[in-house]
Design a protein that fits this description.
about 100 residues, mainly alpha, Serum Albumin, Chain A, Domain 1, elongated, mRNA transport
């Protein structure tokens, strides 16, 4: 199986098995627990207060672009590592490998 087909197969199984949703749910739970969601909301409100919203103010796309990097920085290393390990374990299981081999 080519690398591209293997990737597609693992991605398909990732979604169909429900593992993707389980990881998303875990991530959202950790973000709420850490206060990340509240911090991002504060940043959005600040941008809207400063720039307004709509045609002459901030658009949803502009707010997203402005917050993408700072909001990612707010995610704890522990949360990033937990999600990364969950994904690694899934891939290792699908390929019959030890998680330390990938």
């Amino acid at each position: 199986m080519s690398k591209g087909r293997l990737t597609q197969s693992v991605e398909k199984q990732f979604v169909e098995s429900g593992e993707q949703q389980r990881i998303v749910d875990t991530l959202m739970k950790r973000l709420k627990e850490s206060g990340w969601e509240d911090e991002v909301k504060k940043m959005v409100h600040k941008i809207i207060k400063e720039k307004g919203i709509g045609k002459d103010g901030a658009t949803a796309e502009a707010i997203f672009e402005e917050l993408k990097t700072p909001s990612r920085r707010l995610v704890s290393n522990e949360t990033k590592q937990e999600v990364y390990q969950m994904i690694r374990k899934f891939v290792a299981d699908q390929m019959n490998l030890d998680v330390d081999d990938i």
